[in-house]
Amino acid sequence: MPEALSQEMTAPARAALIDAQGVSLSRDGRRVLDAVDFRVDRGEIVTVVGPNGSGKSTLMQVLIGALKPDAGQILRAPGLRLGYVPQTLHIDATMPMPVGRFLSLPRRHAAVARAAALARVGLEPEVEAQPMSALSGGQFQRVLLARALLMAPDLLVLDEATRGLDQPGTAAFYRIVEDLRRELGCGVVMVSHDLHVVMRASDRVVCLNGHVCCHGTPEIVASAPEYRALFGMGTQGTLALYRHDHDHRHDHDASCAHDIAGGGDA
Amino acid sequence: MLDDFLVRSALAGLGVALAAGPLGCFIVWRRMAYFGDATAHAALLGVALALVLSVSIFAGVLVVALALAFSVTGLSARGYPIDTALGVFAHGGLAVGLVVVSLLPGARVDLMGLLLGDILAVGKGDLAVIWGGAALVTGLLAWRWSALLTATLNADLAEASGIHAPRETLLLTVALAIVVAVALKVVGALLISAMLIVPAATVRPLARSPEAMAMLAASTGAVAALGGIALSYQADTPTGPTIVALATAMFAVVSVLTGRR
Q1: What is the ipTM of this complex?
Q2: Given Cys at both, which of A42, A47, B53, B179 links A15, Cβ 3.0 to 4.6 Å?
Q3: What are the pLDDT digits (tens) for B44-54?
C-alpha cells in the first residue's frame, strides 16, 4: 500500500514529488527492475523510454503504489495527489458506464468541474452522456486524461497514454500535457514508444532496460551510446527537426550533465 | 402477519433478491459467474459439515463458501488456471456433501430442499438470518460502492487513487459467501447463482449507469421472487425453480424487446 511506503521527505534539495531509490522488483523469477533510481520534480516532464519488457510499466505501477518493490523505497512528497492514465482500460461490455460517471470515479466531482476538465482536453460537455464504449480511441484517452485532471494532481503518470492514436492525435495529446504542466505546475512522468514526439516534449529522458541505462536531457540521452545501442541512430536527425526551445530552467542541464553514467551492458 | 407462511416466503424472497441484484452486477461485470456457481454448489459440503458438527447450517455454509472463495482467489492470484480448479471444487463439494448427508444416521435431510430451495418452509428464525445477511451485504456494497466500482474497472486506476484493489475483491468474495449462505434455503444450491446473474443480465440493456443497473437488478429480482412465489402457489410447482424460470422469462422478453443478446 502506498501509505506504507511513503515517508516524509527530509530536506530535499529540490521539490521532488516522488523519489524512487534503488527499486528492485522480480516477477516470475525474472528481475524486472534492478536498483532503479528515479525521481520527478515539480514542474518537470520526465519520459521513460525503453524496449518492450524493459520494466517501464512495472516502474509506473511501483510509482502509483500498485506494486510493492522487493527492495528500495519510494519517497512521496507529503499529501501527493496522483493523476494516472493507464495504458489500456478495458470496460466490460456488461457494465454501463457513461463518461460523466467515469469522471467521478472514485470521488464525485461537480458538473462544472467535470465540464471544465473535458473542455481542458478539448472535448465538448455533451460527451458526458455518452457511454465510454461509444468513444473513439482519441476521445477515450482524452477522457482518461480529464479524469486524471479532476484529481487535481501534483503528479501526472501517463503509461503509454497515446497507444492506438495516430501521429496527429498523439502530437495533440502531448501538446495538452505540456500545456497542463505549465498551467498546473504539476510534474509529469510518462512512458512512451513515440520517441520523437515524446523527446520533444520532455525535460528529461530516462532510458530503462531493467536498470537505468542512461538519463539526462533528450539531446544527451539521444547521443548516449547506451541509448543508441537500444534504439539505433535514427532518432537523432528527427529529434533535431522536432526540437524546440523549452522554457525550463537551465540548471537542469547542469545537474544532468554528469548523469550519463553508463549503466553498462545495454 | 409473519405467521402466514406465504408472507414469510415473500419476505425471504425479497431479502435475497435485494442483496443478490446489486452483488450480481459485480459478478457479471467481473466475469465471476462460474465462481458464484462453484461457491453455491460447494455450499452442500457446508450443510453436511454443519449436520456432522451439529452447528447451524448457515454457519457451515458460510465457512465452506468462504474457504472455497479464499482458496480460489489465492490460486488465481498466483496465476493458476482457474476454470479447472473451480470445476473440481464445485462438483467435488456438491458430490461429497450429498454423500455425507446421505450417510448421516437418522438425519432425515430433504435433499430436494437443499438443491432447489424450500422457501415455503422458511421460519421466523430463517427470516431473521436472511434479512440480517441481506442487510449486511447491501450495506457493505453501499459503503464501498465507489471503491468497488473503481477496482472492478481497473486495479491500477484504483491503486493510483489510494484504493487497494485486492481488498475490494476480498470484500466481494465475503459478500458472495454471505449471499450463498442466506439464499440456500430460498432457491437451493443449484439455483443461487441464477438469482445473482439473471436479474443483472436482464437489466443490462435498460441501464445507463452502474447504479441504475444495480437498482434495476434488485427490483427485477424482487419481482421475480414475488411473482414466482405466487405462480408456484397457484400452479403447485416447486417455488425456487419457478422464481428462476420467471426471471429467465423476463430476461428473454427484455432481450427480444431491446434487440440485444
Answers
A1: 0.87
A2: A42
A3: 899 889 988 98
